Amino acid sequence: AQSVTQLGSHVSVSEGALVLLRCNYSSSVPPYLFWYVQYPNQGLQLLLKYTSAATLVKGINGFEAEFKKSETSFHLTKPSAHMSDAAEYFCAVSDNYGGSQGNLIFGKGTKLSVKP
Amino acid sequence: DTEVTQTPKHLVMGMTNKKSLKCEQHMGHRAMYWYKQKAKKPPELMFVYSYEKLSINESVPSRFSPECPNSSLLNLHLHALQPEDSALYLCASSQSRAGNYNEQFFGPGTRLTVL
């Protein structure tokens, strides 16, 4: 079965510092991977997605993620954090099996705090 | 239009009330989803409609009843809910459920409180 593990339920960085949010996946087939961001009391917004076209994926708001098959990882990075990046971030893998095809399997989420 | 809309934004209901949540998309997507999200948790899948047919019901209690009147609309009918049903209810849509086309777009959610 496919799964996603997000390391660190809470990450705190200073404004201007590097943001690194970790995501490891488990999948026996090439996965479709996603990063979503959720601001308080809002829905989820897609930051970026990996669909096997390129291993380095650029997303919105300056975020990017690199797919590393050897490490089964899809970590999210941003060179310089802004106060507006403070939010909950979810990594997700798309289920590719049978009747569950297309369902998103979410990690538990990582709350990003940005200190001034 | 790349937006999923949900109404109402907030809903407070008693345990004997009947209410409905509404979701609409005009992206031509053929798959639509209902999720329930509790505080500090990821969304939990409730129902999936594909081409207006219910394809997944994740063992959701019958007090939640989904309906897909057409390809753009998705409703969630609520009846005799319990306080533990209080949560953020999210609607999402995707082009289809297959492979590279299942990027899901989420609505802003309905914050439901059951008294």
Question: Could you list some keywords that capture this structure?
Answer:
heterodimer, A: 116 residues, mainly beta, 5-stranded antiparallel β-sheet, B: mainly beta, 7-stranded mixed β-sheet, 4-stranded antiparallel β-sheet
Describe, in plain words, how this protein is organized in 3D.
The complex is a heterodimer of chains A (116) and B (115). By secondary structure, chain A is an all-beta fold. Chain A is 0% helix and 53% strand. In chain A, strands 2, 4, 5, 9, 10 and 11 form a 6-stranded mixed beta sheet that branches. Chain A is globular. Helices cover 0% and strands 56% of the residues of chain B. Chain B contains no helices and 11 strands. In chain B, strand 4 and strand 5 form a beta hairpin. Chain B is globular. The relative contact order of chain B is 0.32. The mean pLDDT of chain B is 92. Chains A and B meet through strand 5 of A and strand 9 and strand 10 of B.
| Poorly predicted runs of 5 or more residues of chain A | none
Structural class of chain A: mainly beta
Q: C-alpha Rg of chain B, in Å?
A: 13 Å
State the total count of DSSP E strands of chain A: 11
Helix content of chain B: under 10%
User: What is the count of helical runs of chain B?
Assistant: 0
Based on CA inertia axes, which overall geometry of chain A fits? globular
Helix and strand sequence of chain B: EEEEEEEEEEE
Total beta strand runs of chain B: 11
Q: What low-confidence regions of chain B span 5 or more consecutive residues with pLDDT below 50?
A: none
Percentage beta strand of chain B: over 45%
What is the subunit organization of this protein? heterodimer
Write the element-wise H/E pattern of chain A from the N-terminal end onward. EEEEEEEEEEE
N-to-C CA distance of chain B:
36 Å
